[in-house]
Amino acid sequence: DKVGFYTSFRVNPLLYRWDLVDGLCHVLFCVLMILRLNLSIKFDQLKFDAGVRARYDWASLFYWSDQAEGVAAAVAWLVWVRMYKYLWRLSWTARILETLAAAALPLLGLALTGLVGLLCFAHAGLLAFGAQVHDLRSFGAAVFSCYRFVFSGMPYEELEAAAPVLAPLFYLLFKVWMVLILVRLCVAVLVDAYREVMEERRQRWALSFPPLEALAEDVAGLWREWVRGEARAQP
């Protein structure tokens, strides 16, 4: 139906972002069904018999099973993300989503800045402590470990044992740049975007937390739309 709508009326699909999410969900679901069918065919080809001792190619089955589970996880994630489509109808949840939309571009620039800093500290940590610290044993492990260090503790004792001179310098620079500056900039961007959204909606409700009247008005508006739709459907 949606494909016919877009082709008949020549509507730009980019104007309806949730329809794109629905389309992606349907495509992934079809891919999942193909993978499941392929897995069933490969299992039937084994001609498995529990009473016969033989070597079966389980590696291929496990591989395709993992691929199917990955696609299934993506479909499940998209299905839950589609809940935001209906949350937009409520004004007090729409304010939060509008805040995230307003802060998207500044957060993207901040994320790129943080990524460069993360790669910088990961490479430096690999060269300085990688031979003795397990969390920094490779570049990939160092990147994920540095990302974890932003939100959790850093094994400072292991760093100090590996390099007593570089450990304090690495620790202080990482905490100041990645935690004290970038994380607080992220919070500041979100707070500033929320303040702008609330200024635009000040006439809606003056409080920073929506009162019950806002929820009642939303429910009443949805009810009126449903009643009008039922009235149009009647002959």
Map the helices and strands.
Layout: H1 2-9, H2 17-46, H3 58-81, H4 83-87, H5 91-102, H6 104-129, H7 139-151, H8 156-162, H9 166-200, H10 212-233
Helix pairs in contact: 2-3, 5-9, 6-7, 6-9, 8-9
The major β-sheet equals: none
Low-confidence stretches: 205-209
Helix content: over 70%
| Shape annotation | flat
Distance between the termini: 23 Å
What is the succession of H and E elements? HHHHHHHHHH
Count helical runs. 10
Strand content: under 5%
Rg from C-alpha positions? 27 Å
**Quaternary structure state of the chains depicted:** single chain
Averaged pLDDT, please? 81
Q: Got a strand count?
A: 0
Content-based structural category: mainly alpha
Polypeptide structure, described:
The protein is mainly alpha-helical. The chain is built from ten helices and no strands. The protein has helices at 2-9, 17-46, 58-81, 83-87, 91-102, 104-129, 139-151, 156-162, 166-200, 212-233. α8 (156-162) runs antiparallel to α9 (166-200). It is flat, with a radius of gyration of 27 Å.
Summarize the entry for a quick read.
The chain is mostly helical and 235 residues long. The chain has helices at 2-9, 17-46, 58-81, 83-87, 91-102, 104-129, 139-151, 156-162, 166-200, 212-233.
Keywords:
single chain, 235 residues, mainly alpha, 10 helices
